[in-house]
Amino acid sequence: MGSQSNGQPGQGLGNRALLDKVDKLRELGISHLVPLPQMVVVGDQSSGKSSVLESLTGFQFPRAATLCTRHATEIVCRREPTESVVVSIIPHNPSPEREKLVRGFRRSTDRIVSDDFPKIFEAASTIITPPITPSITLKSIWLKRIMQAAKVMGIKLSENDGDGGSAFSLDVLKVEISGPNADHLTVIDVPGMFETVTPGVTTESDIDLVKNMVKRYIQESRTIILAVVPCIVDIANQKILRLAAEADPQGKRTLGVLTKPDLCIENATKAVVCDLVNGKRRDLHLGYCVVKNLGADDVSGNMHRRNQQEQSLFGQAPWNTLPSDRVGVAALQTRIRHLLMDRTRAEFPFVKSEIMTSLKKSQKLLADMGASRSTTDQQRAYVGKVASNFVTLKNYGLDAYYTRHNFFDDYEMRLITRIRTINEAFSLVMHERGHAREFEGASTDGDGKGMDEPDEVLLAGDRSLLYGDKVNLKIPMFGDGDLGDIVSDSYWCAEPERGDMLQHIQELYLNSRGYEMGTFSSEMLSRTFKEQGSKWRPMTLAHVSNALLVVHQFIRRALEECCPDSTVRDELWGFLLYGQEGEGHEGLLGRYARAMDHVEFLLSVEFQERAITHDPRFDEKLSQLKLGGEKPASEGPDNGQPAQEPEKGPSSSLEDTTREIHNLLQSYYGIARSRFIDVVCQQAIDYFLLRAKDGPLEVLSDKVVLNMSAEQLDLIAGEDLAVKEERERLAKQVESLTQALKILRT
Ligand code: GDP
Ligand code: MG
Predict the structure, then answer these.
(1) Does 243 lie in the same domain as 345?
(2) Do 583 and 498 sit in the same domain of this protein?
(3) N or C: less crowded end of the chain, CB within 10 Å?
């Protein structure tokens, strides 16, 4: 408060320190996050709000009777060794372009020349009271500045301004006053409320706009409401008192200020005012004060004169009978100071905990955004971090270190376990029903158990049907669209045909023999083998596709885990999936294709013309079959010699030849099947899908990121401006709130 205020040297240093802290918090600009104690002056138009403010702060505001304030003005007074005044604008909900313009407005001076202030605010009043006469007013540099401010705030300067804008603005004009004589006080002067429209100046919607603006300010629980009511109106029916009672039902923060007592003529009116000040009416818990400001006729704006006038008025009856602590501006100042102090002290613990909450929230938001990514280096570091986390997860998945990350709490992510499960099931199904026909004398027990042909519907969608009841896991269908060309159809393996295998072979033999006598061509084996293994191809392709889908889902989910930013993730996923032609990065699709190609390779090798094995078990099996097989054909002579080489054997009947082919096929098939299952699992799946240096799981690694070009990185990890600004805003917020906590702790 100004130099003319009745200073209160008795105020303890502790109090001052508390207010100092609040001031420092306010300087940090956190009041939009955590409301701080402040004061708002409200009332009807021309009730004397600005006059009261002026009296309180000692700085001069416009007092012209015609004046109506068209935007809120926040006046922040601070006691500081050096003088300065800063005028700026706090925009309300600005468009991006306007925000820049408004925030760019900032005028400051390092001197408080008190003669200047009437001019400054006179200038402001000139701006909002059309028409203006530029020739006179533009002389003042301050006027120019305020005019600029008004323009930036979008206030209609005159009727002919014609942009249809409101006569009021929700922007806040902020005036920061510091000096050795200023006292800690933040006061907000809001436009006065009014009931009737002035054609060409205000509209119906302006009435509500102002009312809502006032409501917004008084709703805030840390705001002290100075309800200004002139003595010359029907005080009890003042709308502002009703609004204040709604916003502050306990009346803890509403102080009534009666103005214009000098204009009371009738004794009855004076008596009403005296009753109010004396607390005879209990509508306001904190009661009323009465002040006398300069009247409309007094254009001097002289504060000294004002105080003299006030003193002389209150020296007269009936005012001199009132309690002195409720009469005059000095008493009001003291009361406000105490009130502010009380509120501040009461609210302080809440302010502190709210700052902590707000800090945590901002920190979390900031952390969720990740590190800044504007330069190539930052982008590389960002994607590099994603990659190294991915590599870690992938290795855990391959090594079954599932306890090291809660990612694996989801069983579907237990990569190597799932691969092993389906590999084993594949092996079992291959053994049970991978062959086209049952061999002669094959055991038939347990056939078809749990392997009933499924419904057509299920068959189409459920890829795990391949394994029958051997597994109960679902093969993920994720990425089907992308992988359509690579992944084979799902396959359900029917049971092998039953019936006379010997008969079948005999027919085959008879339909393809040449001139061989007592023997058969070596082609007979590969031909029957091809037929017996006719299901291998669809089964194997389906199985390796299933493994591929498991790997694919794992990669996707691991990426989601490592890259929480969905924008980056989507770009990165595209890069991983399709690769970058010409940049030497092969995508997942190419890597998967190699595994599937290898399946084709293994199949083609297995079913080529020559049947080859050097497995000693082949001979064992063959002789075993021969021995066993002779029993049913007991009519024939049994010389006890194994007949591995049919050509050299004794001349055989057709039946013997057929049986020989059968036994040969059965021996070879078993060997080939084991070999095939193993190489499929070992090469197509374990090597090509899981471990290969150029396999799918290597699609994202530190090395890949190192080789990314600047353009790629920018495409993947670059941020748009909005994100960048949001991060900066949050970072600043975190810094301010951290600073605020530090202030509170000292
Ligand atoms: P606001 O619209 O609520 O800000 O009201 P102002 O402070 O601008 O005052 C409106 C008019 O009332 C101005 O002409 C003031 O000079 C005048 N006024 C304010 N307070 C008093 C007072 O106590 N006595 C007299 N006579 N006039 C006053
Ligand atoms: Mg005013």
Answers:
(1) yes
(2) yes
(3) C
